[in-house]
Write a structure and sequence with these properties.
Rossmann fold; Dehydroquinate synthase-like, alpha domain; 467 residues; 11-stranded mixed sheet; 16 strands; 19% strand
Length: 467
């Protein structure tokens, strides 16, 4: 059971309706319950009876919202609370004992005033965000932002993963399961070995068998707990098991949070190349929880920063500064670049979505030829810089651009040149298997400057690439 809390006009009801629908839960708007019970709008309750009487009605409605229905306890609920419901300690204790409270971070004063002003008279106490700031800050589980993306609800926050996957069959990366399963209160249906080398058709077959042996049906939901490999494999297995079941994605690495978690692409690798088998199958919910960042190594954090720099290039964002582990708000700002592009071109029909492949044609070849000893994040860093050099050779970018881009990746301790031992001829062979090819022509998403990434068809067999 999830209780959504926060300042008036912070978006509790808006988020609650979508979250409940995506989780297959019942949605309860506490204010609507109060109005139905009292038979008059909340401003009239305040005017005729005062705030204390309203709080009494609120407390009663809260408890009634959890009353058993059809002799069964109401457990699968998403409840939107009023902006002052938990000012009463007994109400806070009641919610924390019966579920999880997610407090929505307060929008800016300007945005709150705009929202409150657009519904004039509906909130008798007005903007109480500053006055209650310390109260709202006392709730540890938080939501910083969310995006409603096609069939996915992307929720970004802290301490949100466990309640969202409660009661769902979980597919977990083996390493992640050891670190997090007990903390999240989940017992995985199946664990899969860690690493890109296990992103194979055989692992997908193992998942199908686990789903069948676990008794999963068309109306069931599975959750992926792990990095991009776990998400891609679980999503692909879900897309194809019984012709498609729902799934939830809980990315646990920074790389998967800002890249593979959203967009609906699922799949596995073949011996001939990366992600050559797959399907579009969007998760119902993506729960991006920054708690996971606390157990990541510096190398894994840097790998995630590679995709974040890529988004900065595509979106023309100011370069990130600060610690390797970003805040939920920083992740949301960065991920908004990908979300905006996916909304415009969800199934790669218009060519807009190809921009997200910036650096990836070279990166996927590097990963394949290194037999995945080079991580995806490192490969993306190398790929973006190498493709910037290609843009210069094609006359599309200033000669100084590759060095400027390389310095941004190097600031996060990422490699910026091709590793020794990888031959140009082998790179060309692998790149000609790229999904974006047409004969020997491959469309690169070339970084030509900040905010300037272009889809450019390139003949792989010409010397400009081999250089």
């Amino acid at each position: 059971m999830i209780f959504l809390y926060g300042a008036p006009a912070s978006g509790k009801s808006t988020l609650g309706k979508v979250l409940a629908e995506r989780l297959g839960a019942k949605f309860v708007d506490l204010d609507e319950r109060i109005v139905a019970k009292a038979g008059k709008p909340i401003p009239e309750i305040f005017a005729s009876s005062g705030e204390a009487a309203f709080r009494d009605l609120e407390s009663k409605a809260l408890r009634e919202s959890l009353a058993p229905e059809d002799n069964r306890p109401a457990t699968n609920l998403v409840v939107s609370l009023g902006g002052g419901t938990l000012l009463r300690e007994e109400n806070r204790r009641f919610c924390e004992e019966n579920g999880a409270v997610f407090c929505i971070d307060t929008p800016s004063d300007e945005e709150l005033e705009r929202r409150i002003g657009s519904a004039a008279g509906s909130r008798p106490l007005g903007n109480k965000a500053r006055e209650r700031a310390s109260h709202y800050a006392s709730f540890p589980n938080r939501i910083a932002a969310w995006f409603d993306l096609e069939n996915s609800l992307v929720v970004i926050g802290k301490g949100i993963a466990g309640p969202i996957v409660s009661g769902v069959s979980v597919v977990a990366d083996a390493t992640v399961a050891e670190l997090w399963a007990k903390r999240l209160g989940v017992s995985p249906l199946v664990t899969i070995p860690s690493g890109e080398v296990h992103k194979t058709p055989q692992t997908v077959m193992n998942l199908w068998s686990a789903f069948a042996n676990g008794g999963l049906g068309r109306k069931d939901t599975v959750a992926a707990l792990g990095g991009g490999v776990a998400g891609d494999l679980t999503g692909f297995a879900a897309a194809t098991f019984m012709r498609g079941i729902s799934w939830i994605n809980v990315p646990t690495t920074l790389l998967s949070m800002v890249d593979a978690s959203t967009g609906g692409k699922t799949g596995c690798d073949l011996a001939e190349g990366k992600n050559l088998a797959g399907a579009f199958h969007s998760p119902r919910v993506v729960a991006i929880d920054t708690d996971f960042l606390g157990t990541l190594s510096p190398q894994l954090l840097s790998a995630g920063r590679a995709e974040m720099v890529k988004h900065e290039v595509i979106g023309g964002l100011e370069p990130s500064v600060g610690s390797a582990a970003p805040s939920a708000a920083e992740i949301a700002r960065n991920l908004a670049v990908k979300v905006g592009i996916v909304r415009e071109d969800p199934f790669e029909k218009t060519g807009r979505r190809i921009l997200l492949n910036c650096g990836h044609t070279v990166a996927h070849a590097v990963e394949t030829l290194s037999e995945y000893r080079i991580s995806h994040g490192d490969a993306v860093s190398i790929g973006c810089v190498e493709e910037a050099r290609l843009a210069v050779r094609l006359g599309l970018a200033d000669p100084s651009w590759p060095d400027k881009l390389a310095s941004r990746f190097a600031a996060w301790n990422l490699p910026v040149s091709l590793p020794q031992g990888i031959a140009a001829s082998d790179m060309a062979t692998v790149m000609k298997r790229d999904k974006k090819r047409a004969g020997g022509i491959v469309t690169f998403a070339l970084p030509c400057g900040w905010g300037d990434v272009r889809g450019v068809p390139v003949d792989i067999d010409k010397g400009v690439v081999a250089e």
